[in-house]
Amino acid sequence: HSAIFPSAPGWATSYQKGFQALFVKGPFTVALDRMEAALAVLNAQSQAKSVPVQNPVPQFVFSTTPAVLVTIDGDPAWRPVEGTSYQRVLNTRPLLLRDGTGTIYFHLFDGFLKAPGLAGPWTSAGAVPPDIAKTAADLGKSGAVDLMEGPQDDATGKKPSLASGAPGVIVVTKPTELIVTEGSADLETLPGTSLLYVKNTDANVFLDLTDQQTYVLVSGRWFKAPAFKGPWQYVAARDLPADFMKIPDDSPKENVKASIPGTAQAKEALIATQIPQTAQVDRTQAKYTPELPGALDIKPIEGTQLRYVVNSSVPLIQVPGGAWFALQKAVWFTASTLQGPWSVAVSVSPEIYSI
Questions:
Q1: Which DSSP string corresponds to 105-166?
Q2: What is the DSSP string of 166-205?
């Protein structure tokens, strides 16, 4: 028997002895229902592996100034906000409110931007009517929207403020990736390779001098194009130019090697995905209520026995037994019918792993 630990090869023998010592104390007792549930999940995962993965190409938007992306799932579905004179777009997580004059308000950071239409131009709204602020606060507390307040700065303990300047707003209705650079793209060489990388962005953007293609890594998938303006196409990681394997481990772009098969980083990433991540959820406080922009639209999930609600802003899935599951802010909820009552799920139906 042997053991391999890619992130700590020098400790393999020591770790192996430690694991073997766990089993010399005698057999483990595992509850039958727990074993059956685990086998059901493994079976569903095996089924998922047999289904070809789809890799649709998103739109790519490059901005040389700070910007935020607001993605609407298809055409905007404006619906009245109960108890107010406003409408909001239901098929998006950010808050977009429209008043009677047609002015649209977008909550960002600690305030609002406004525009005559979704295409802009967006400007600071300054002080807004109290009922707009209250509507935003109520919707934010309910979990119905994401107020886009931004992360807290570790050094100052403060969240971003519009007082420091408003970023550009890009509203889209199709899957889109936004890549922001601090000014024009600034290319830097990667020693020992024919690759250049854009160093004035948090994104992973490369230029291969050999084939003159631009490569971008987003959400674990690689895409390439002859220029930023496209046309873009999906490229399997195994088909990347060989020099991507040669990216130095001490370079600023070492992290992309986790998405390049055959590297030590990719092996570590695979191991990391097998380690359960946990978080504490207050089941009495976590709430979910389906919000649909119009009539219920249900379609099957290809390659599975599941169905999903197409016009839901969060994943809303029905399993073969008829039960429903919804995923909101990384918390699973379940109900026997769409009308509820909904509660935090103690476990997730194994069929969902077949997606």
A1: EEEETTEEEEESSTT---EE--S--HHHHHHHHHHHHHTSSB----PPPTTT-----GGG-P
A2: PPEEEEESS-EEEEEBSSS--EEE-TTSSEEEE-SBSSEE
Residues 6+ away with beta carbon under 8 Å from 204: 197, 216, 217, 218, 253, 255, 256
β-bridge pairing 59-63 and 176-180: parallel
Structure tokens belonging to residue 73: 């799932």
Size (the chain), residues = 355
Q: What band does 332 get if pLDDT is binned at 50, 70 and 90?
A: very high
What is the pLDDT of the chain when averaged over all its residues?
88
Q: Do residues 130 and 137 lie in contact, with contact meaning Cβ atoms separated by under 8 Å?
A: no
Looking at the whole model, is its pTM more than 0.70? yes
Residue 255 pLDDT level (bands cut at 50, 70, 90): very high
Tokens representing residue 5 in the block: 């630990």
* DSSP class per residue in 66-90: -EEEEE-SSS--EEEPTTSS-EEES
Pairing of strands 78-80, 316-318: unpaired
SS3 state of residue 86: coil
Classify 18 as helix, strand or coil.
Answer: helix
Tokens 């890619």 correspond to what residue?
6
Cβ-Cβ contacts under 8 Å for 134 (sequence gap 6 or more): none
**131-157, pLDDT tens digit by residue?**
999 999 999 988 788 999 998 888 888
CA distance 230 to 139: 38
d(C-alpha 220, C-alpha 240), whole Å? 13
Q: Which two tokens stand for residue 214?
A: 């631009």
Q: Is 291 helix (H, G, I), strand (E, B) or coil?
A: coil
CB count within 10 Å of CB 332 equals: 20
Alpha-carbon distances of 315 from 175, 290, 343, rounded to whole Å: 16, 10, 15
CB neighbours of 130 closer than 8 A, spacing ≥ 6?
A: none
The Cβ of residue 268 has, within 10 Å, a number of other Cβ atoms equal to: 15
Distance, CA of 316 to CA of 339 (rounded, Å): 12
Q: Largest Cα–Cα distance of the chain, in whole Å? A: 75
